[in-house]
Each structure stands twice: as C-alpha cells, then as structure tokens.
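Checklist before submission:
- one chain only
- standard amino acids only
- sequence pasted in full

Submission:
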Amino acid sequence: MRQRPVPTIGLISLAALAVAGLAVAGGESKAAAPAAPAPAAAKNAASVVLEPTQGSQVRGTITFTAAPGGVRVVADLSGLTPGAHGFHVHDKGDCSAPDATSAGGHFNPGGTPHGAPDAEKHHAGDLGNITAGDDGKAHLDQIFPFLSLSGPDSIVGRGFIVHAGKDDMTTQPTGNAGARAACGVIKAG
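Returned file contents:
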C-alpha cells in the first residue's frame, strides 16, 4: 500500500489557520483552564462527646479545628467540681472500661516526659487543665500548636479524658490528676 505525500499547500493552510486563531484570540492561547485542585486529604475538623465514667456526672463536647498556628480546641463541660481538672488526649480510642482505663495513657508519640502544654517537652496529649466554676461548668477556647488532625501524630481516633483532679504538670507520667471523670473518642468531622 503506497502512502500519498501530504501536499505542502495543506500544511501552509493549516499553519495560517492556527496563526489566525491566535490573532482572533488576542495573541493568547485559549487552552482549557486547568481543573480545580482536589480537596485536601488532610482532615481539618474533629470532635468528641464526653460521657461520664462510673460514679461521675461529667459530660460535654469538644471541637478541634485546624487554625493558623495549630488546632483550635473549644470545650464546654458540665458536672465538674469547682477548680482545675486534667485535660488530655489519651492513646487509645476506647472508653469501654467503667473507669476509662481502656483509653490507655496520655498520647505520647514522641516518647517525651509529661509536662505543661507550653513546656519545652511534654506529651502530645498534654493540654493542661480546664477550670470549672462554682456551677460545675467549664469552657475553654485555645489554640494548641502541637496538635495534629492528620498524619501519624493525629489525635483523630484517640481517647479524650477529663480527670477528677488538677494536673500538676510535673508528676510522671500523668500529672497526678486523679481518676478519669469523663471519656470520649475523637472523631473526624
């Protein structure tokens, strides 16, 4: 089978049409706009509903939202005794034990000592204390720069514990915050 040569006049005409098209478009190529980027795979929000442990009345909700400089934590709790209460992300997302010991210890992927959230070294789950008023209610709205909602150090799927007592932020490994008063599992969304 013999192929016919492409006539030179045909190539010249095609080139002229392409140049004319650019001239009509103002000298710019009007290629299709690139597709919008896909939504980020990283999670940008999570929440937890805290339920009382056996013998406790503590309950509440906490939201976690990605924010400039870290993760914004907004907590509203009730049923607390007046004063400070340890406030921690725990390693396991399991609140099945009546005393919430099933949630394990503080979330600590870096293997660091327990400490205050603003200390040079502390667990990734060390959020310090939340303080209840005389009415047993507590509110917190704070950005924690070390929290993560995605990746290997994500808090999503972990347990969250509010303790019966104050975290002294020095006693190892838990801050001597006393019994676990409420527990919940942090869920994305």
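Reviewer check: The chain has one helix and nine strands.
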